Structures are given as C-alpha cells and as structure tokens.
Amino acid sequence: xxxxxxxxxxxxxxxxxxxxxxxxxxxxxxxxxxxxxxxxxxxxxxxxxxxxxxxxxxxxxxxxxxxxxxxxxxxxxxxxxxxxxxxxxxxxxxxxxxxxxxxxxxxxxxxxxxxxxxxxxxxxxxxxxxxxxxxxxxxxxxxxxxxxxxxxxxxxxxxxxxxxxxxxxxxxxxxx
Length: 176
What we know:
Blueprint: H1 2-11, H2 16-23, H3 27-34, H4 37-62, H5 67-83, H6 91-98, H7 105-127, H8 133-153, H9 159-171
C-alpha cells in the first residue's frame, strides 16, 4: 500500500479509491494500518523524506571530501532528477500547499526534513569555513527549492545549472 501511495501521491495526489485500487487492498486495511488517509499521507512523506535525504548524502559522498564539490554535486543531481520524464516537482512543496489543515502531521514531517537538509548544508559550509554558514545554508536551500519548482514549471530554462552558478557565488564568499 505504501508503494502505491508514494507513487500516486507524487503523480496525481491521493484519491482513496484510486489508492486502494492500485494497492489492491480493502478500505479496512487503510484504517487498520494508518488510521486513515492522513496517517497514510504522513507515512508516505516520512518514507520519501528518508529516501531523499539518503540520496543527498549519497550524492555528496560520491563527490569526495571537498565540501565545495559536495555542495555543488547536489545541483548536478537535481539536474538528473529534473531530467527524468516522470518528474513532477517537489513532493514536499506540493504537500505543504495542498494540506490545508495547518495541524496535519505531514507539515511536521516536511518541516523536519527541511531542517535536516539545512543542517546537512550547514555542516558542509562550516567545513568549508564559510563566514556565514547558517545564512549560506538558507540560500542553498532556497536554490534547491527553486530548482525543483522551476524544474516542474520551466524545465527548458535549465534551473539546476542556473542554481549551481548561484551556489558558486555563495561559496566564493571569502573565508573568515
């Protein structure tokens, strides 16, 4: 059921009937395992954030030990992600926009995910001895979010390449 929900929420949003049909499960299973649609959405987001954070870490690790290379590698990876034919934008931005209840558990999951990504960026910027690691991490996170949004709405503008150029400017700030 989680596999079907993860795929359907990304491609089409979640319709309970479509989800149950795709997962080939009874409605009762949804309530037994997740307590309902909100619980399922929260679990899908939890699972997706773990996968995406692991992908960021793997991308950075593959780039070597230099913090600059590790940070810039993220934008190369985003270019790959955006280039996939099934790319539909950032799952977390979409969730935050469509989950209208501010107390929906999905919001806490996306917020915590962004905090972990921010910390990942900040740690690399500290290793680089950047003079403003927290602010630069904010800027990088904005570039990541913008890249994913533009990748869904204007992929022909090559947003990951543009974001990488801007990231280089941030990284070129003179050390303390």
